[in-house]
Amino acid sequence: SPSIVWFRDDLRLADNPALRAAVDRGEPVIGLYVLDEESPGIRPLGGAARWWLHGSLASLRDRLAERGGALVLRRGAAEPVVRETVRDASAGAVFWNRRYGGPEREIDTALKSSLRDDGVVARSFAGSLLFEPWTVKTGGGTHFSVYTPFWRAATHGPAPRAPLPEPREIDGASAALDSEDLDDWHLLPTRPDWAGGLRETWEPGEPAARRRLREFLSEDLDSYDRARDEPAAGATSLLSPRLRWGEVSPFTVWHETVQTEGGGKFLSELGWREFAWHTLFHFPELATTNLRPEFDAFPWPRLHPTQLEAWQKGRTGVALVDAGMRELWRTGYMHNRVRMVAASFLVKNLLVDWRRGEQWFWDTLVDADAANNPFNWQWVAGSGADAAPYFRIFNPELQAKKFDRDGRYVREWAPEHLSEHPPEPIIDLRETRNAALDAYEHVKRAA
Ligand code: FAD
């Protein structure tokens, strides 16, 4: 009886414990991916994420085929679709790597017990996080709400396990099943085709992810500590979409980094990813609800749609914000420092609720991640875990002077700001900053 490997956020062959378990079981292996836009609570993917998913699935399908395996694509609510695939294939086992979001966990738990009731082996594995959220605890046995002690506790336990090798051959021949056609899922934009900049910037799929990891470690890690905050320096790993889709596992990143000298700071950034997931696991409403409830008292003024649109399009008249928002629109990516500045400008100068910004990033980022995105928005807004104090409001002009000293980044993305007649900011930075601080008084009173 065949084994099914249910791929989700782990679109890779190397260091994939679920795939490894299926191969080791010794029966034919069927890869399955379910496009689930129906299960209750599942957040539909944004446009840029759908674009990435298409490329990553095409790559996974080809790689499985090269080794004798196959990838079956089906659409619908995951639980019934997986059960139906088990019946169609007369499968005896289903393996997957665990997910940590609230609705995803509910689906997986229900499925595991219903499969077992039917006598089907159902097993899950740790593949997407170095430290599963329930394994890192405070002395008092609770979860962490501050990053530094979280990361200290996580890294003082047993070291992350070594990555598993990639299976060379997969016996999938006798297990052909009906599959939908990837093109029928319409994950790629057509009219209009806005993905030109994404195609120029990225190559989804496991081989490109592994290449980028090697290249980063050999060429860029040396300058990471010094230059990682400069958006024009190209000093960061660009691994975020690859980690988001699991084209490379965090265990592989971890082990290859510790074998290279001087990776401590880089690993601690991976630690922020772990902490964001730790936070989401314990607070599944992270994308919709203030983690600190006193922020519910924040008096958001009525939305000014033209200002929101100016921000989205990169037409705020503030150089670093405009450059970042245009980089995002064109490439599906924005440098971390600029994400912080652009987010702060939306929340603390335009006084727009962070959830609107989070939604825009969700739709436009290729690395849009159910934990990292809302976690970081709440961090910037001040309402989140271990957040920046509200009253510390980024000054986007000083940030540009500090981190884009020679204007290279602004020249690339918003050059009119360096012309003789640069655009004027759509709002007064000082006035709006003061208005934000006044509004924050309501939060202080509610605390
Ligand atoms: P590197 O500096 O090379 O870092 C290595 C890896 O560490 C990243 O790939 C990422 O997985 C992780 N990491 C680094 N910084 C953070 C962080 N602050 N929080 C969590 N993980 C981190 N990151 C996402 O992956 N998805 C998102 O949807 C996302 N939304 C964000 C929204 C806002 C408002 C802000 C301020 C940050 C957001 N980030 C998000 C975090 C960060 O900006 C990106 O992870 C980083 O810019 C990716 O580039 P890199 O891979 O070159 O990073």
Automatic annotation (TrEMBL):
The keyword Lyase belongs to this UniProt entry's keyword annotation: yes
Flavoprotein listed as a keyword: yes
Top-level taxon of the source organism: Bacteria
Pfam families per UniProt: DNA_photolyase, FAD_binding_7
Keywords, ordered alphabetically: Chromophore, FAD, Flavoprotein, Lyase
GO molecular function: deoxyribodipyrimidine photo-lyase activity
Cofactor(s) the protein needs: FAD
PANTHER family: CRYPTOCHROME (PTHR11455), CRYPTOCHROME CIRCADIAN CLOCK 5 ISOFORM X1 (PTHR11455:SF9)
Family the UniProt entry places it in: Belongs to the DNA photolyase family.
Protein name: Cryptochrome/photolyase family protein
Originating organism: Microbacterium alkaliflavum
